[in-house]
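Per-record layout

source: Pseudonocardia broussonetiae
name: GGDEF domain-containing protein
length: 729
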Amino acid sequence: MAAPRSVPGSPRARTAAAGTPSRAAGSPLSLHRLAARWAELAPTADAGLTARLATLLRRLATTLAAEPYWPMAARDIGADLLASGLCGLPGEVVDAAEEVLPASLRLLREQGPFVLGPGGADAGERLVAALDELVTGFTGALRDRAVAEQVEVVTTTLRAQAGVQRALALTESHYRAVYAEGAVGIGVVGLDGLVLEMNPALREMFGLRGPLDQPRPVTDFVHPDDLGSVVSGFRRLVHGTADVRRMELRFVRPDGLVLFTDVVASLVRDASGAATHLLAVIEDQSERTRLRLRLQRASYHDRLTQLPNRALSEQWVHRSFEPGGPEWVGICALDVDGLTRVNDGLGHQVGDQVLLAVAARLQMAAGEHLVTRTGGDEFAVLVADPEGLPAVCRIADHVLEAFATPFLVGGHTLSVTASVGVAASATATACPEELMRAADVALNWAKTHGGGRRVLFDPERDAGESARFALLNGMAGAIDREEFRLVHQPLVGLGADPRMRGAEALVRWDHPEQGLLGPGAFIELAERSGMIVPLGRWILRTACAQAAAWHRELGEDAPYVSVNVSPVQLVEPDWVGEVAAALAATGLPARLLQLEITEQAVLGDEGAALEALRALRAAGVRLALDDFGTGWSSLAWLRRLPVHALKIDGSFIDGLRHPDADPVDSAIVGSLIGMAHALGLEVTAEWVETGLQAERLAGLGCDVGQGRWFGDAGPAEWVPDLLRRSIAT
């Protein structure tokens, strides 16, 4: 059994992971455009709503950026959101909020990281916490508004009770009207904790059919979990430490229904100041409380599958790393392969049905562990298990098995697979951001390898990719900072004419942190990212300028410069024009420029690449087929290529360096040379390291040699002297 592996990381890695929001939701919006998009959620048109929401967004941005961070400041923003009119007129708020507030939270979670400024290691966590407090502030303000509507009734009731002592005959009828006919619940409680009387509104609220037959303990009605709050509040009132106390309490009706209420309990005194009883004014907040709970659920659950969403997933992971949490935590991050094809081919309704079926299977596969939907076609299984990585891997295998059976959806039998990234860490030695980033990285590897598999996070691989990303990130600026330079390796004639014919331009990167880097460290990255286009343009222009200087110094004896061309460059729309522009700008004759291309770049091509080569040859530029022998060129195809020379790959030449070389190696090289000559092509041998190789190649009829035997690559300034020495030899 494999030993558990922790996920190492650095502050830089943690910052990059947590501070980089997903852009799946679309392009970022400006603050004003976000406010306008937000205003579109309102049930009724309001010309000034966008401006009011923009003000709230600016306040939210200030809250998120504050140091120290205090998420509860967002409660005031939530309260003012209620007053903004986003949820319509006062009578519409409760119904409208059920739709508008969850949609608002989704919009702010998607666009907030781009608009509400600065990123950082905890940017996502800050936004989630602030939005949670915003919901609390909104629902609290909604509750306060409802209570305020009853303030007048409460005040009237209290004044009427006091008035009984001073002017019973004048106020009794008014008091009884408020008590008997008011919409708010009113109860009279003795100092011994017995409920003496309830008004009709309170009896209806509590599900009682008629007046109380006899006093009953207030604890008969209170929810068991709130008994402590009631006892504490009652004591404070009776013992005189407070005359009014406001509480949020739950009561239980005889039918089992739980009521969520706001209670204002007041101590009533007689004319001498002695306490006589308590008057409780009770407002049923059940509908609004359940609304708040629904809104909170909507903000943390996916609407389609009802699974926890990304916000709750991240919250779970962070809480798992708190003191007292599990020893090991793991994540299986997964992507449903092929869902885009289902959506495009059969429609999003079928795609949604697939997602629902996937959610059901994942819950079966995960058992007791938490399944979340973190994005469009992305899910996660969050695992807390002391066994660590082996346990997480078993869950990942169960997940893959869950996809083995096709999905029957809407009359269609659909085979979809999953890519799963697996990561686990000991909570004592890692952090939440490291673990979540590791799972995402492993998921990306699984997708890159074709999907339908699980891939474990590998710290060494990640370190290598991070280093390559850092190189790529600095490459664009490196051109402007003039960190690249060219060195030139001589191309020397073999046999009777040992003159230097040309020099191959080789790029080096003088990296400020890593030192001098050869092309193997960055060219492939440049090709994959497209950076090879500006880099290749710089290499071409620089090489032409240096060769032009040789030509001015050496005249007709000047060597040509040979420049490697990437397949990416070869198909650029105006690449031929760029070559012509480089020649024109530097004054280099076309015959003194050789462009090296690989077999793979033109193999089987009948389009832009081949046309570009023909145009360049017509303009007088030399063309060489590099690394010949490693591809699959046929003789028929080779005859059609407009090249001047073949460069035999060094792997064929290496076998000629030993005195007891295999005759087969010589036969292969000789065959390649003979074939090239038959086609009228010049032949260059690469990797010539010894005099014996050079002698054997000359005997086989090879025209030009290149390698350390003739000299290492050096600066452009060396080339004229190398040429003069080769002529004098």
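summary: DSSP finds 27 helices and 22 strands in the chain. Confidence is low (pLDDT under 50) at residues 1-27, 160-171.
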